[in-house]
Amino acid sequence: MARLKKVWALIEDVSAGTFFFTGITLIFYGVIMRYVFNDPKAWVEEVVRYVIIWGVFLGFAVALRNNQHIQVDLLYDKLPPTLRKFVDYFATIISIGFCSIYTYYGTMLVIHRYDSNMVSLDVGIPMWIVYLILPISGFLFGLRFIERLVGLIRGKEVDYDNPIT
Known about the structure:
This protein is mostly helical. It has helices spanning 2-36, 42-65, 74-78, 81-116, 127-131, 133-153.
């Protein structure tokens, strides 16, 4: 099981990192083409936008795995341990529900974009491919919340300074 978690984490890290690296490389290419060769490429901005968005959305699950997501714990830190445990369960279950809804409606949006044959303006990328990140990221994010819930059920405390292993 530990090996599967490591492979899963590696796939998440590599995929999010690849999209970010590709986006930054394309930005660099666009700057060079515009300011050095005076030959701006209109497609670069559009592709960069989509690639960076994919990287960010894939990074949601990575941030949750590493406990690097935004959280306000001012009140949480003041709660007694039993109430903290309740808040952890409640927040995790609500988050799983959110991810389920997010994934469902993301899938519906992808299906709608596929049926409408909508494409992007400059490059002509089918928009269903662009929107495909919604159900993918919702599913991966949901899996991380399920992992967190399993950790809570097994008695592992949520340590906001270190990821659940």
